[in-house]
Amino acid sequence: MSRRDYFDGVGERELGLDPQNKKLGGVCAGVAHYLDVPSLFVRVGAVVGLCLIPEATLIAYGVAYLILDDLEDQGEYLSD
After folding, report:
1. Which residue from 60, 40, 41 is spatially nearest to 50, judged by alpha carbons?
2. Number of neighbours of residue 26 by Cβ within 10 angstroms
3. Out of 12-26, 32-46, 51-65, 66-80, least confident range
4. What is the pLDDT of residue 22?
5. Which one in 28, 34, 36, 72 has a CA-CA gap of 20 to 30 Å to 45?
6. Mean pLDDT, range 8-27, rounded to an integer
7. Which residues, 6+ apart, have CB-to-CB distance to 63 below 8 Å?
8. Are 17 and 68 spatial neighbours (Cβ–Cβ below 8 Å)?
9. pTM of the entire predicted model
């Protein structure tokens, strides 16, 4: 794999809330969409974070929920 192939598509996706696939606020689903991974992986990571460092995880989730826009509002195509 060349360097050009590895970075192909970088900067084309937007980070935001995913209202179509949300369970709570859409943060984990939006991060999963941005990273192009299954949302289950991000949600499991969030639960592990809650068990290990709950204060930091709750603050990060809350801040992300407050500052991120819906992907639908940004015109981002959702394909999860």
Report:
1. 60
2. 22
3. 66-80
4. 85
5. 72
6. 80
7. none
8. yes
9. 0.73
Instruction: Name beta bridge partners: 70.
Output: 17
Work out the average pLDDT over 7-27. 79
Write out the two tokens for 61: 């989730």
Both tokens of 45, joined, read 């990571």
Compute the residue count for the chain.
Answer: 80
Q: Is 8's pLDDT higher than 90?
A: no
SS percent in the chain: helix, strand, coil, step 5: 55, 0, 40
Residue closest to 18 by CA, chosen among 30, 28, 33, 31: 30
Q: What is the rounded CA–CA span in Å between residue 59 and residue 57?
A: 5
Q: Across-strand partners of 17?
A: 70
Q: In the structure encoding, which two tokens stand for residue 54, read together?
A: 């709950």
66 residue type, one letter: L
Mean predicted confidence (pLDDT) in 35-40: 92
